[in-house]
Write a structure and sequence with these properties.
The complex is a heterodimer. Chain A is of the alpha+beta class. In chain A, 26% of the residues lie in helices and 19% in strands. Classes of the chains: A alpha+beta, B alpha+beta.
Chain lengths: 459, 205
Amino acid sequence: MTNVNAADIQGFVLRGYNFPVARYLFLEISQDNGRHFVSRLTPQITTGEPWDKKPRSTVNIAFTYKGLVNLNLPTLALFSFPADFVQGMKERGAILNDTGKNSSEHWDLMWNEEQVHAWLSVDALSANELDHRCAELQELMQETGGAVVIGSQDACAVLIDGKYTNTEHFGYTYGFGNPDYLGVMRNSGPGQGKLEYDGRWGVLATGELLLGYRNEAGNLPDAPVPKLLAKNGTFMVYRKLHQNVAAFRNYLDDQGRRYPGGREKLASKFVGRWRDGTPVELSPHHPDPDIVADHNRNMNFTYSSDLNGSRCPIGAHIRRGNPRDAFGFNGQLVNRRRIARRGVPYGQYVPEGLPVRDEDERGMIFMALNASISGQFEYICQQWIEYGNDARQGIEKDLLAGNHNGRGRFIITGTEDPSDPPFVCGNIPNFVEVRGGDYFFVPSITALTMIAGGTIDPR
Amino acid sequence: MAVSGLTIFSPILESDAMGIEHASSVRRYLATLPRTHNSPFARVPSTHFARLVVMDDVVFVGAPAREEHLTSRYLLFEATFDSDLDTYLARMAREIPDHVDSIWSHCVGYPGAVDPTAFVGYMKKCQVEATFSFADVSDRTVQQNLKALQVQSALAHFIERNQGRPATEIQMAFGVLLESLAKAPPPLPGGIDSETTAAENGTHD
């Protein structure tokens, strides 16, 4: 296959922009003028074309099912969307285990009091550029009468010593792994796609990311009609994950005092990476900045020689989210469960040692792109994050992201080395709480033009 | 093999004297049965898994289209269980005769649960030999699995509480643990952790 047509695909689908600041505007779309707004907006949308020079800001848009209804898509086209997307995140709560503290009645007010129709995303080089671009978009909405902003979410890379970093609020370096797909040009090292039978790393089928292409099963993903509406589009999961930083640090302090390997080693076992990003599978006893800096190594590892988890615990966050070859069959069992992630933190970062409260607005905006929400994001969430059976972890959940209700447990297998012993962490509270989210359709530029022009013919 | 499987198709009667379809009646009855720890099959404690389905007809999927029909409607009963088939079926007749009667009395030639031998003979007549059955239970009996889960849970709690303590204290505490486990009543069917969530119990395609 030749490369996909990046000019027809919204840019953030193909790669993360790595801008320091972002704002997600949530829109209610007008039934009367919504299409006019989309028509005026479409030329501004940032596509996947390579940049000669990094722009000062980017704009992208995606719609919920209700948004597509208000854009007056033909009924036959609306009825052809997959059920997971049509239902939306709230209705899929039983699958995602959004119960207790994570249940939708505790989400931010907007998700309960308003109907979110669209996600309009602006990334920018600076806070000023961000305000400027958002003001322009506000003007366009007013002028066309096509949409109103019913809520917004700011996100910002964590500032440490005046520099934007890839640190999240628990102190881990994030954003290493994203899958490679056939026909999608990206600068990446080995370890990000799928394992081939000969042990080399290859690329995933395009249809795991984009609609209209073969997926890993050799089929076209379940997608709306007409085909032109779907092709080069995808589905996005938006999920606001509040982080209880005080609870996390207290827990790490408390368990770290008892764990013979010490606090930082314990933190590395939780995630499968040391806080600087060193994979524990490659360096189980200490962080190694040389590995972190080396694109040929920082994602390049497998678990088949560590099946009992003595280097990287079986329940570690990155091993749960992407088990690689841990389930055998040379990794074939995970190839249909991969997602592209575009996470950005929100809220003020508080360095370790300073007072911090769980109540403060702080967390991660988790965004994932996949061709099948139920087959990919929901599967990972239900089976690998909120449950442990595939990895023979019984009913244990992901330590960081799991909805534990204080009953969580995490087992570090360890070795016979006294500084690296087996250890059981019990009574795990919820370090992360869901505060809102939904499922969005990310149309191609062609599809946006069709939506705006009312030229969708599903017959 | 500690665990066996069964697949039984019982033809369902047509309509009763009132003109009500037996298939509808049995389907309605099955819908009222609890499916979790208070399922009637929890009272047949050698049951790992049981499934009852009313099969109205079969649909040919393929081309060219072909119209095919079953000669009657069938009640499908699938189960995985400990012990041999005769013992298991006789146990069903003894432990939950009311449910067994309420279900299979809608089927052709059903002799009643009152005579377990006749019931076993009837069910075996309707049995389909499965060449491969799969039970994801490590080939241990229900009781062994429940006990293993109880021990696993108790041991994990024990380690949480005692890790890092001096070896002699751990050894003493471990002795207490073993004693309490030995004395503990056998765990109830339906699992130890009654607070499992929908996601934990749910299925996914």
